[in-house]
Design a protein that fits this description.
Number of helices: 7
Helix content: over 70%
Order of helices and strands: HHHHHHH
Number of domains: 2
Length: 184
């Protein structure tokens, strides 16, 4: 019974919440507290862990709540519940998109969305730029960042896998950091 409760509770949260994990947080909190699955302190600890682990916040949090409530099967049911609505919506969109992709309306929509996505990515970039390159950054830090950026771009042009680029940049950053070049 608890497994079905977990699945349907998180299915409802996944189906009726738009805006990602942070938008789901109040619903997850209300559901977990109302059903007595955990108290506020436990939930906030799970939020902190969910934010610091790879993956979407809502998926991580639902997995933790399910595991705490009903073990491995609970984690599976809660995770499937929160992911299933998005999966079904994307599946439906994909089915209809292939049928209508030649439509002038759909092409127009996609042509309009591309610049919006680029703008959103650029906005995110400009949002993190001050934290990445503070005003008090030294010239070696800026030079190292420039070298890493040029190297990453060159790897991109040579079609090096993005994971290798990330690992390479992290390795160079750690090496330079251990030499004191990148320390703030």
């Amino acid at each position: 019974m608890i497994l079905l409760e977990l699945f349907f509770s998180f299915f409802k949260i996944g189906a009726f919440t738009f805006g990602g994990g942070y938008a789901m947080l109040p619903l997850i909190q209300e559901e977990a507290l109302r059903r007595g699955w955990m108290d506020v302190e436990e939930l906030m600890n799970f939020v902190a862990v969910s934010e610091s682990t790879p993956g979407p916040l809502a998926v991580n949090l639902s997995t933790y709540v399910g595991a705490e409530t009903a073990g491995l099967l609970g984690a599976l049911c809660a995770t499937l519940g929160v992911v299933m609505p998005s999966f079904l919506i994307i599946l439906a969109v994909a089915k209809f998109f292939s049928a209508f992709q030649e439509s002038a309306w759909v092409k127009g929509c996609m042509d309009g969305l591309r610049p919006a996505v680029v703008g959103m990515v650029a906005s995110a970039f400009w949002g993190v730029l001050p934290a990445t390159f503070p005003l008090w950054a030294s010239w070696p830090q800026l030079a190292a960042a420039g070298v890493l950026a040029v190297g990453a771009y060159a790897c991109h042009c040579k079609k090096v896998h993005p994971i290798l680029i990330i690992l390479g940049c992290a390795g160079v950053g750690m090496a330079l950091g251990s030499l004191g070049v990148l320390s703030l």
